[in-house]
Amino acid sequence: MEDLVKTGHVVGAIGAVYVDGRLVGKGSAGSRLLDGKGGAIPSTTRYRIGSQTKTMTATVVLQLVNEGRLSLDDKLSKVLPEVADKDLVERADEITVRNLIQLTSGIPDYIGPDASDLTRDYRPTDLLAASRKHPGPPRSGPSTTPTSTTSCPG
Question: Rounded to whole angstroms, how far apart are CA atoms 23 and 17?
Answer without folding.
Answer: 6
